Amino acid sequence: MKLITQEVEQFKRVGYLKIDGRVIDDEHLTVLRQHYDTLFAQKRGTIGEGLRNLAVVGESESDEDADRGEEMLQIMEMWSLDEEFRKLLYHEPLLDIAESLIGPDIQLFHDQALYKPAYHGGEVYWHQDNAYWQCDPPNLVSIWIALDDADEENGCMNVIPGSYVEGLAAHGRAESEKGKLPALLQVKPDVDRAVSVPVEAGCAMVHHCMTLHQTNPNRSSRDRRAMVLHYMQTGTRSRDGEVMKDKPLLRGKLA
Ligand SMILES: O=C(O)CCC(=O)C(=O)O
User: Fold this and answer.
1) Please, which of 5, 7, 97, 126 could form a disulfide with 214 given CB 3.0 to 4.6 Å?
2) Within a 10 A sphere around the Cβ of 44, how many other Cβ atoms?
3) For ligand 1, mutation pick of 148, 153, 215 (most atoms within 8 Å of CB)
4) Domain-embedded: residue 255
5) φ, ψ for residue 144, nearest 5 deg
6) pLDDT digits (tens, 9 = 90+) for 184-233
7) Which range of residues forms the domain containing residue 162?
8) pLDDT higher for 70 or 231?
9) Ligand 1 contact, 148 CB (< 6 A)
10) Residue 173: its pLDDT value, please?
């Protein structure tokens, strides 16, 4: 599923791309959904132990009863918890997309499941991924896979086209009445330029780690389950300046 030249050019121009066609077929989707739901069910009530509610963080994060009204649930490193998600790292269509954008030598930076339950799914605020990661070179790409149809009503991705070439905006942690927010842009994003990227179940969009993006709350009657894989070229350095040799090598060779 290599991208064609026009798609690569478009990604380079705007910093994201909606992938044309399915990346996960129906049968595979059914299996991934079952395993996803099982992991979230197993982790229910264990906030702070591998499960985070990004809508309620800081002091209150460890309080399992904290604001059940808003849930933006996250499980990191799904690949290390479940064989189906480990296999997903090597799913050829995804690696072909990553290779088209960052070259043949690919490591996983990390993966995450991001679940916005129906009716009370919480918001993810505007941010650039590399503001937190501080990876060098700052050219990681993330493939965001919809396990349910994702649209404006249940919290699909919204992006600011071209923002990735405008440099890193100031980010910080801020307090809200719910505690510390995980991700807060300190400047006002130019939301007039924002576009929504609805993605059907089994399909994906890819974004650059410097692209400003956000997702809205889910007030619809439909769950929004998503899986995101963050890819880096081998030789990428962490915020400490160390080459991340220990991250899973997915294709090609280590630098
Ligand atoms: O899925 C979401 O709601 C947020 C996704 C996101 O921020 C990301 O993939 O970097």
Assistant:
1) 126
2) 11
3) 215
4) no
5) -100, 115
6) 677 788 899 999 999 999 999 999 999 999 999 999 999 999 999 999 99
7) 5-248
8) 231
9) no
10) 59
